[in-house]
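Single Protein Entry

Contents — chain, fold
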Amino acid sequence: MSKELVNYLKEFVTEKRYDLFNKVLDYRTRYFSVALEDIYQSQNASAVLRSADCFGVQDIHIIENRNKYNINPDVAVGSPKWLNLYTYNEKSNNTLDAINHLKKQGYRIIATTPHTNDVSLHDFDITKGKFVMLFGTEYDGVTQTVIDNADEYLRIPMYGFTESYNISVSAALVMQYLSDKIRDSKLDWHLTQKERDELMLDWILKTIKRPEELVKRFNSDKNNIE
């Protein structure tokens, strides 16, 4: 259904825009994702989304416990429009809810925090299966719940006096390094054809005028043919 509808609706976008969508989809991945726990500064929250779009990371998982995740449109510059954002804010322990959900999807949970059994970003093994990088709050880092339930721990090398990077900088460094690493590998990191079709449809619907009207017309024409 998505493919048929895409073929119909692509006539309502420019060839240049359609080609750009395909080019971006070539580099999109769900082999690794990012999860953000209780980020409350809107500029940091928005900068992470902007970086995710730039580095081709499609899914961002947002955990809200004490703090609501706010987006600053001036910083995000439209990036949320092209990403899939999943919010966890309905349980008593939203962090654990998110972790359990992601583990059921087959993701390895990687806590970005110094730990006894941590590994440097440059030594992280991407070949053991898809993974989620989990980042914590601006000042406290990830919670004990994350530390207790993570599968692995990752630290970003630092060589100065300051103890940690800004959260948005940390996320950008990790995404830049790992997105390059998986694309240089022989891993099957690409989206499936079904995922490509679904995202293409979503993006087209977000850019054309009167999308509901066009979808209604498509369904009507399809029913008449049948």
User: Anything to note?
Assistant: Residues 114 and 195 are 35 Å apart (CA to CA). The beta strands are 32-37, 59-63, 84-88, 108-112, 119-120, 131-135, 152-155. Residues 29-189 form a domain with the Alpha/beta knot fold (CATH 3.40.1280.10). The chain has one domain: 29-189.
